[in-house]
Amino acid sequence: MTTVQDLMLYTRLAGFRLVVLANRLCCDSDFSRQLHDRLIDGLEAAIARVQTIAVLERMLLAGDDEFAAYRLEGEIAIFAWTISKSIATRMNSASMAATGQMPCLPMAMASTSTIRSSLR
């Protein structure tokens, strides 16, 4: 990812986190609050991962760390896998709800290299 992409993704995740925090105040059941809390935790983890990727990209450009390229590749792969897993789970849940079927594992997930290239 470039610095601009990092900032855009960070901004979107942080903005969505604020919306979820505001919506949590309107929850009338413990179940709803727990769901919002889980979503907030996931968003905070994604924000931290994007911040780490941005720091590693700066280190790579500055030449401060000889292992920054490997660490950056690993961070992007983990982030891409997490996002693809999340999307596949949501798509599977949505199709299950629409058709009334039992949940099943996704047959194919996007490869790490495909997602990594789209993040750059």
Can I get a quick summary?
The chain has 120 residues and is mainly α. The protein has helices spanning 3-24, 30-62, 68-99, 112-119.
Structure description:
- With 120 residues, this protein is mainly α.
- It has 4 helices and no strands.
- α1 packs antiparallel against α2 and α2 runs antiparallel to α3.
- The chain is elongated and about 50 Å long.
- About 12% of the residues have low confidence.
Low-confidence residue ranges:
102-116
The string of secondary-structure elements, in order, is HHHH
Secondary structure class reads mainly alpha
The biggest sheet, with number of strands, parallel, antiparallel or mixed sense and barrel status, is: none
Q: Could you tell me the mean pLDDT?
A: 76
Rg estimate, integer Å: 17 Å
- Report the principal-axis shape: elongated
Number of strands: 0
The assembly state of the depicted protein chains is single chain
Q: What is the helix fraction of residues, given as a range?
A: over 70%
Gap between N and C termini: 4 Å
Strand content: under 5%
